[in-house]
Amino acid sequence: MSTLTWQRRILLGTTGPALLGVTAELAHRLGPPGPRLLPAPSSVAAAAAGLLTDGEFAAHAYATLYACAAGLAAAFGLAVTMGLLLGALPRVEHVLRPIIEFLRSVPSLVLIPLVLSLLGDPSVAKTALIVYSCSWPVLITTLYGMLEVEALLKETLRAYGFGPLAIAWRACLPSTAPHIATGLRLTIPVALIVSVSVEVITGATPGIGTYIVNAYSFDRPAHALAATLAAGLLALAITELCAAGEHRLFTWYRHTTGAQPR
Question: Rg of the Cα trace of the chain?
Fold first, then answer.
């Protein structure tokens, strides 16, 4: 099955949003007279273009991306280590599985008041919540990747005297790398959602969420919606870059399993 070129993917991917924008603009202009609850899409687009040279927004975006990067790095190290350990020790994994399933089912956003009261500092609380919410997808994909490691390979290493942790490091980690990369890619939008949500609720830490709150406070809804759009585009761009990296790094995995690239 042939894959689309990146030019055609971009063209097809932008057609839907463009049609939606044109439809919304026509509905806004041709609608009944009177005050509008939302600004015109053209106004939002103009505000979004202005964000490219807005130093204030750049500083807020940097704060959000920095918090996401720090939280993702910590979650990656923690989740991969725990996934390899639990995958190498199946009895321990069976004991902890109910706790893991329960904790990963708790929405991170409902924990914001609790974490804020415990940690006090909104910036620290934001990073902690990103670590919490992003650890579970990486942990679960690592565990699933461990299940696909060849049993013969593990048995061979055991025959040569390697212990469970050595087997996890030498055989399981390379084999589960594609699954780990997928888990990390899936956490990128989650990290951004948690970061912006904490910023919107607290308004006390720099970030895109704080910029959005301030824009609404100063009666600039077009800028608020433009910043919201920019947050989504940032998550999309980073996710696509990660997908492209997976495509290049794990070509051997696609050839072995027959998996198709995104």
Answer: 22
Contact call for residues 254 and 261 (beta carbons, < 8 A): yes
Alpha helices (H) along 31-121? 41-51, 55-88, 90-105, 112-119
Q: What 3-state DSSP class applies to 44?
A: helix
Exposure string over 213-247, b if 16+ CB within 10 A, otherwise e:
bbbeeeebbbbbbbbbbbbeebbeebbbebeeebe
Helix (H, G, I), strand (E, B) or coil at 78: helix
State the residue for tokens 């041709």.
30
Crossing angle of helices 221-249 and 55-88, in 10° steps, is 40
pLDDT tens-digit series, residues 199-238: 988 877 888 999 999 988 888 888 888 898 888 888 888 8
- For residue range 4-42, list pLDDT tens digits in order: 565 676 666 667 676 776 776 666 666 665 455 677 777
Contact between 183 and 142 under an 8 Å Cβ cutoff? The reply is yes
- What is the Cα–Cα distance from 137 to 146, expressed in whole angstroms? 14
**Ramachandran angles phi, psi of 160, nearest 5°:** -90, 10
**What one-character DSSP code corresponds to residue 25?**
H
Which residues fall within 8 angstroms of residue 147, CB to CB, at 6 or more apart? 87
pTM above 0.85, yes or no: no
Report the sign of the C-alpha dihedral through residues 167, 173, 174, 178, in that order: positive
